[in-house]
Amino acid sequence: MADEIVPAEGPSYRPPRGRRRSIAEYAPEPFDSEKIPPTLVSEVRRFLRVANQIEAESPRVAYICRFHAFEKAHNLDPKSSGRGVRQFKTALLQRLEQDERITKFLRKEKSDARELRSFYNKKNMKAGEVSSVLHEVLKAVVSGAGPEFAAAIDIDEKIGSYAPYNILPIDPGSGQQSIMHLPEIKAAVSAVRNVRGLPIAKDSQEMGGSRDILEWLQCWFGFQKGNVANQREHLILLLANIHGRLSPKPTSMLKLDDRAVHELMLKIFENYLKWRKFLGRRSNILLPSVKQEVQQYKLLYIALYLLIWGEAANLRLMPECLCYIFHQMAYDLYGVLSGAIDLNTGEKAVPAYGGEHESFLNNIVTPIYTVIKEEALKSQNGNADHSTWRNYDDLNEFFWSVDCFKIGWPMRLDNDFFCSMPRSCKSFHFTSNLTPTGISTQKWVGKTNFVEIRSFWHIFRSFDRMWTFLVLALQVMIIMAWHDLETPLELLDPSIFEDILSIFVTNAVLRLMQVTLDIAFTWKARHTLGFYQKLRFALKFCICGIWTITLPTAYSTSQRNSVCSTKLSQSNLYLFCLSSYMIVVAIYLLSNVVGMTLFFFPAVITYIEISNWRICKLLSWWAQPRLYVGRGMQEGQVSLLKYTIFWSILLFSKFWFSYHFEIKPLIQPTKQIMKVSVSDYDWHELFPKAKSNAGAILAVWTPVLLVYFMDTQIWYSIFCTIFGGVYGIVHHLGEIRTMGMVKSRFHLLPSRFNVFFVPHSSQSQKEDKGSFRDFLQNKIFKDSKLAKADIPKFSFVWNQIVSSFRSEDLISNRDMDLMIMPLPSNLTSQFIRWPLFLLTSKFSTAVNMTKEFVGQYKQLYWKISKDSYMVSAIKECYDSLKTIFKFLVVGDLEKWVLETIFDEIEASLKKSSLLVDFQMSELPALHDKFIHLVELLFNNKPDDREKVVIILQDIVDILTKDMMVNCSRILDMINCSENDVSDGNIFFQDHPPELFASNFPTCAICFPLPDNVALKEQVKRIYLLLTIKEKAMDIPTNLEARRRISFFATSLFMDMPCAPRVRNMLSFSAMTPYYLEEVKFSNEELHSSQDGASILSYMQRIYPDEWENFLERLPKASDEEIRYWASFRGQTLSRTVRGMMYYRKALRLQAHLDRADDQGEKMLYLYIYKRHTAFDGEQNKRTNQQSLSKQVLDALADLKFTYVVSCQHFGAQKSRGDPHAQDIIDLMMRYPSLRVAYIEEKEDILADKQKIYSSVLVKADNNLDQEIYRIKLPGPPIIGEGKPENQNHAIIFTRGEALQTIDMNQDNYLEEAYKIRNVLQEFLRHPGKHRPTIVGLREHIFTGSVSSLAGFMSYQETSFVTIGQRFLANPLRVRFHYGHPDLFDRLFHLTRGGVSKASKTINLSEDVFAGFNSTLRRGYITYKEYMQVGKGRDVGLNQISKFEAKVANGNSEQSLSRDIYRLGRRFDFFRMLSCYFTTVGFYFNSLISIFGLYVFLYGQLYLVLSGLEKALITEARVRNVKSLETALASQSFLQLGLLTGLPMVVELGLEKGFRVALSDFILMQLQLASIFFTFSLGTKAHFFGRTILHGGAKYRPTGRKFVVFHASFSENYQLYSRSHFVKGFELLCLLTVYNLFRKSYQSTMAYFMITYSSWFMAGTWLFTPFLFNPSGFAWRKIVEDWMDWNKWMKNQGGIGIKPDKCWESWWNAEYSHLNHSGWTSSIMEILISLRFFIYQYGLVYHLDISQDNKTILVYVLSWFVIVVVFSLVKLVDVGHRRLSAKHHLLFRLFKMLLFLSVITCISILSTICHLSFKDLFVCCLAFIPTGWGLLLISHVFRSKLECSGLWKIIQVVAYAYDYGMGCLLFAPIAALAWMPVISAIQTRVLFNQAFNRQLHIMPILAGKSKHR
After folding, report:
1. pTM confidence score
2. Of 44, 823, 970, 1329, whose CB count within 10 A is highest?
3. Residue 1180: predicted pLDDT
4. Is 1772 exposed, middle or buried (0-12, 13-18, 19+ CB in 10 A)?
5. What angle do CA 1828, 1831, 1837 make, to 5 degrees?
């Protein structure tokens, strides 16, 4: 019999008897239970944790647990082959050997089994992790001891069963949890556990049956245990919430209502039913005829779908794939339920994939996942062309066709769908799909429905109607301007009218182009197109081709044989003349008549698109390809009318301006240019016979035309600003902007609060809805009468908000006292006690006013009554003094005196004779005495008793002798009493007591005052009321607190739904994806310094008041609290979690108010009065009833809210001991309801070390993380874009009917969290067609005060998330999802692909695709501004540029995507315009504006160098073309940031006042905002254009650092060299050459006016990174940067060398995007690079050495010079490599000889050929751009050039160019650094807000940090 346990591999040591240690002496260190190899974590860790937990009580039992853990680890990996397993086992074995030597002699029983059993019984444990572990260990020990011993020890199997729970403890013992007692939970649990009548599976029968329908489905279909547990809770919570919200209420809340099941079923299966209808298939959701079984069947289908979804992993991003799987499995399910007979086997039908362990995962999910993964691998991390691999959309859209049913069920893995290789399938190999030769017969399906091809033509293809409209409008305006029309009636002239009709020829050509592009871009998807789709393309092409031929032919014929033109112009008959061409046009337009008619009837279009009638299918098929999405997206007629009017006004304005200022002024110069005949050119003209000077016309017209196509963006910005501002005013935005306005309207807040936040009965809501008067009062005038019943709840919530301000250290204790709003102690009190900050100085003002007043009392009363707060202050002061005197004065005489005085005062008030009965001249003296008295009472020191007595006597004397006119009765009473006392009382015969001084037999006054909390608060309040002097608008002093109060008050006057009771509200979740960002700052990070400043010192200086408040709150703050204080002010996960957990706090608060309200007004009032200062009251001891109430509140909060943080690498971080993991655990301990989901990766030892991936959900328990659910995945889940995949893996752990997506750098506030019920009601507010699927919320950027750049980003972002999104949502109806804190209809989106898309690269901006997807699937997106969430933004220029580069990359990928294509094609015309100009259009127009500037400059360069400009000036007198000036002015509007500045100013004006907005805007300009926006424009244009051409889009981490540090010169050069510096130097070259040879603008001022924006842009692009670089002009930093720059340039590159370490690696990485470019992109790159050759071609003919020779030989000889220069550079490089190391002097001699040779050649040429110094300068301008162009072209052919010896030369030349550019940039910076004033000015510009706060920046940037 085994009675002890000894490690098998370790020696046994027995200490001598008599030397046993006691338990108290044995206290070893706990064994590290967290650093465990991933392969062993799930099986071993819990034993080690329990061992650590019980070691102090029973060391031997702890040893046994560790030994069991060692055995498990050894059995799992006997060879220790897993990573880290050997080290773990060694460490554990050593610990076991140590413990065995000692613990054996501490054992109290004879054997380990009895010791374990004894400890188990002594603890008397209930179900829990400890009992579960001990139970398992006991079973193992007993089984090893033999059957006889096992029989002797009884083991209770029930105690051992324990499973950690998330929200609902459904396992045994759950009855103790309050949430399980909720009636809706009971009803849902009962329904889910109803398995009566269900067929029993074999496995289930062996296990004793299924507990609920989900376990029953698990037995039949093989779902994972963790998935079943997760979805069981998910389903119960969904059912419970819907059941509890039903109206009217069910007769029995304990029985699940059929309406709840039906509502959930409709939401879950809405997409499935549409899908099967689209494919023409019968629904497999088959219900029984027996009514009693219907609910059970519905729940089975719902549970089946949720189980499929919960285990589908990456397949969740393919909603129609899930529909297909459910369709097949639902059929299997019904076969099981109905007992159908399988025709093949003759037995009862069973599912195609049985209920084996993980059957669903292995047989269904894994094959499809493998296809997704292999296709993703083909993308080469996003570098491969999109057309070569299938993304999520391609694979999902395969299931939009009936061909998907060819996959079959069970799935035929030889289907083409599973082939992931273009020619031969290597995914799955089966004999069934192999030919006799062994070659696979599978074919790669290819792209589905759409191909993402890199081309700018996508923008034309997606928005072809807009481009066609603009081109036709341009043609009409040119014709009108050419004919010089003055009035519209002149258009009716037959010849002009027929010219106008020529637009239809253009239209036909554009349509042919569009169809051709459709065919070309869809060619690679032809294999997945159906026959009718191909037929449609063929017919479209043929018809467009016919019209393209017919219309021009008819037009030319009509022009030759014109009949109408012969009519007399005096007659009006020609108006009715019809030519043959007009008839053809009329026929051509017939097809558009139907579309124009239907445009005004959107409901008809919707019906046609979604109907299955053949005629409707035919009509919709011809209009658009019939796809599953994009149908029925039309808006209602009201919305249609609104945005149609908007765009009509905008387009009219745009075309009027374009005609008069762009097109018409160009016509006359064009006509003159066409007449000029130029024969003498200044260069060798390649096309001397070109007619009409086409080159000159092109140079003049092209910039204007580019601006014509771009300036609609400017007009949109202007009109959006105007209309959005008006919309904001109408909706009361900014109604309360300052604390002064808060004060003036604070009395309205309780009533507004009561309207929106206090739940009302449904009956009263209906009455309010039907009352027009109430509508005007509540919606328009926003005025409500203040009722006494409004106060208690408002006061309670207001005080909670103030308390949250204090806990966040936004206000001090004093501010908190002034802002708290107390309640009177009794319900019958008639006045309201307002917060003291509203009553400051009111009482003293009233005293002074009364003292100086002359007149009647009614006049004084009327004067005081004008200020309601003054009246309140007087009443409260009077009432409070009466109350205090009741406690203070206890003597009978004294009480009588005071009561008599008060009676006299009240009698005078009633008779309005106060000024007659009292002399008010002494009122200030009385006021001072009261202040002194209250001060003494406030301090409440026993030593002050005599002072209190004297002051009381003074007060009575002033009242009776100085103020009261008739006080004889009181004086007589006092005198009489004194005489009685002195005559009759023997104790006071010698010393009769004075008034208030009596101590015997009873004290006259009770001082010190009793220890009564309410009394102390009242004394404190009256003391502050009498002494406080600040103005109301100065309290609170913290700007953030003032802003939040103002916004909360404003929101109460905005339009929001009324809040329901917490039990009736929608349930919701919040989810935050987290990668590797900061959780909270570590001590090292807080105190370490970079550039001399630590994070903590920076924050202490930038938030000085909050730091003081923190120290006031926690005078002895620990390091941990300081870490949290700093982290709550950075962009950390801690800040986000704290903000989101305010939802839970708000829900508990609201739930309690609901419960208290149920108990009646009096109980509600008394409860709030008792607890108005602390709702949670953790410090107070609770009674059992209070504890139960708290549990109920927690249960309701858990029922309605869940917060999940998806910490992708949490498991790996914990394994390697990363402190971030412990920080996350600390967060879970701080917020127990927080849940963390992560991806676990471990090796499977038994499966050849294959990696196993799991989604795991954990919570905090016993200061450790506890696993709740584990769901195995088919493979690594991150195979697309990281963030959406991270969201997708964690979304299965969210709960509720709504989901809020929260980024890691966001925040929330308690007062905003209180509105969550109202926001969720938006999902129920529109019961008709437009039920919202996404509700957008506004954001507040909290990083705006860090630096001027942060302020620019804050203003820019604020204008977008307010005025921009407001107008996008209504009236434009094109708001999408932008990564902001939007609320999703969770059930809608979980059945439609989730809350983002995840395909690599194409979905880089993953968030916006959720909005696209929702809109395409007929969702409705709205936006509400009455709630805001905090948001952090990047604060340094490099961070901002990376962010903008990422967004520009994402927008360029969007322009290639199928989503944008479908939106552009399927929106109506005006909604399509809205979509374009608010998505990719903004970035494309930014690119056009930059491109237009280049076109203008190159056009002018062409005119100057060719000699055309000179000819035009002399012969045609064409100078100062106004249209060009207009075009450049329009471009500069975009360039200088005015496009974003205008909305910014208007929004600031709305919310802060226009005076403040204007001053802020001027200040921004002084802080060089225009420079920043111009630089930002270059970033957008560069990355947008490059990504469309060549790809290379990628996520760019910005770091989200809070503190701004200096960036080195080399870092700036790497970031901006190609995007800005090169382009800046190019602009300088253009402007310099233009300035040298210009002829048109003779005056310098005129030249400057036409080119100022170009010079400004060039300077901005070159020097902005250094201007906005902290310490950028400090000499010490300049020296360090120069050394670092040279080191970076000279370091050798190679494999593994990062780009930031050496120039060569960076150079290769910078052009790596060209390695994956297609041939069209490469050709485009070459063509664009050819622009650099125009310098050389034009300038060599202007050299003096050319001697006016215009032959081509001059240009050819110039290339010889370039070859010589390149050869010299190569020679120097070769000499450097071969001679510099060993023969340094020889190398110097070699360089000197080369230098002398060059000088000699120049001298000879100067002497013989008249080479001048100007020629040398012009040669530099000519040859340097040519060399750069050659370098760009060489990168295109790099693969071929690397094989030759030319690549080394190219690399050397490239090095020389970069080094030269660096030196040119560095020189002016170094020169400016010599002047100290420059550095000071730069610091002021960067940190102006800090200066305004008297923050000393220079010590922060340059000083040394002081470590604590």
Report:
1. 0.91
2. 44
3. 45
4. middle
5. 150
